[in-house]
Specification:
- This protein is 33% helix and 10% strand.
- It has 177 residues and is of the alpha+beta class.
- The protein folds into two domains: 31 residues; 128 residues, no CATH class.
- The termini are far apart.
Length: 177
């Protein structure tokens, strides 16, 4: 439902209704913000080399998460790299890894080198493709073989392993680029 519909259903204004819901659900409230510029706007952003690819989409196991929780990066790799050739694979990987780490001031993250911390996704660039939809947002992407977080497999052959080796990170002052 829209925020306005939520407000009407709760007899409150939209802001108070969503604030109440977030408190009731301890912050585990998903939302879908419609893209105001469509695919043309996304393509423009994808082509700009200083735009980092990130997502704040989560799946808390309740309701329907945004499909981006399962498909953001596979969409970039499958659609904008392979199908539309708007950027190269190395450039896409840089904008998913070292660029956002640098912007957020996360030292020794987002790069593969001795002494650095790196989560690693292994995928087939000829097969990778997002499949998650608004109707079925938990569909795993095609072409992803394994995902390692802090050296431990969290996803392998289409299945979550149950390992939770991730840790919260704190920035030490971002570089904005």
């Amino acid at each position: 439902m829209t925020l306005e519909e939520l407000g009407r259903a709760r007899g409150r204004d939209a802001f108070d209704a969503i604030a109440d819901l977030m408190i009731e659900e301890e912050g585990n409230v998903g939302q879908f913000v419609e893209d105001i510029s469509g695919e043309e706007g996304i393509a423009t952003l994808v082509k700009h080399r200083d735009i980092a690819f990130i997502t704040d989409a989560n799946d808390y196991g309740k309701g329907k998460p945004h499909p981006a929780a399962y498909g953001s990066f596979p969409r970039i790799l499958g659609r904008y790299v392979r199908k539309e050739a708007l950027l190269t694979l190395p450039e896409a990987v840089r904008r998913m890894t070292s660029l956002p780490a640098s912007i957020l001031g996360l030292e020794d993250r987002g790069v593969l080198r001795e002494g650095a911390f790196a989560d690693v996704g292994v995928f087939d660039p000829e097969l990778i493709e997002d499949r998650a939809t608004l109707q079925d947002p938990r569909l795993p992407a095609k072409g992803v073989e394994v995902v390692l977080v802090n050296g431990k497999a969290v996803y392998r052959a289409g299945t979550l392993t149950g390992a939770l080796p991730g840790v919260a990170l704190r920035a030490k002052g971002g570089s904005n680029g």
